[in-house]
Amino acid sequence: MRLLYNNLVDLDTTVLTATSTAAGRPVTKLRDQIRKRVWRATASVQESVTIDLGSAGQSIKAIAVAGHNLSVAGTIEFLHSTDGSTYTSLGTISISPQIPIGYGYGGYGNYGYGGVSVDVPLTGTVEALFIEGITSRYIRVTFRDPSNDRGYVEAGRIFVGTYWEPPNGILFGWGIELIDPTEIVKTIGGQKTNNTRNAYLRANFTLPDLSQSDAYDQLYQIIRTYQATRKDSFLALLLNETDTVQDVVTLYGRFVGDISIANTAPTSYDAGQLTYEESL
After folding, report:
1. How far out from the chain centre does Cα 35 lie?
2. Which of 60, 29, 67, 49 minimizes the C-alpha distance to 143?
3. pLDDT (tens digit, 9 = 90+) per residue, 43-60?
C-alpha cells in the first residue's frame, strides 16, 4: 500500500501550463478537489500539462492522474526536466479496459449509473506511476489518444509528490465495495422514481505490525490532518498486480470515519479498520 499525500500541484508557488485549453476548462481546474471540474484540451493527439515546482526543485517519488477520459488506445507519459528545455521520460502508462458496469457515458463514476455503456470500451480513470526518488523542477504529463471519440483529452486531478508506505502492507481480509447511493422512491400511485447518483468505491483494510513511529508520527498525523482540512489524496492499495486489478484498487479520495490504532504487542501496533472512499 502507498498513500500519496501533500500534493505539490496545490502549492501557491507551483505554476501550471498546458498546450491547449478549452473555454471554461483552464489548467487551474487541476487544483480543484472535485475531479469532474476538469482541465480540458482542444485536441487529443498529443496534449501536455507542465508543472513548474520552482527553482529549488522538489523531491518526487510518485505522479498520478485522476478523472481522465482516455480510451483503451490512449497513453500517459510522465517526464521531468531540471531546466525546462530537455525532458527525460520517467515512464509511460497504457490505459487498460475494465469490466463495464451500468450505463451512461464518460469514465467510471463520471456520468450515469456507475460508468459507461456496455457498448463502449471502459477504462479506469486513476493512473499512478511510482519512481525512484528524484529532485526536479519541471514535471510534464503528456496525454496521447488520437482515436478518442470526443476529440479531446481531459483530466480532473494531477498529483506530484511523495508517498507514505507501511512496512508490512495490508492485512489479509481487506475489501473493496461498490457503493450505489441511488434512491428508489415509490409514489402514492405505486410508481417508482429514481434519484440517480454516481456510484463510488470504498476500501476497508487494516495495517498490521506498525512501529510506534509509523502508527502515530506518520499514519495518524497524515489522516488526522487530511480529515480536518478535507484534503484529498491518492491510495494505491495493492502493488504489482495486473492492470485490471490495479485500476480497481488505486483510488482518488480520502479517509472517512474513525481512526483505530491498537497496541497488539510491546512494540507493535495495528491500524484498522480503515475506510477510504473514492471522490467523484
Report:
1. 9
2. 49
3. 999 999 999 999 989 999
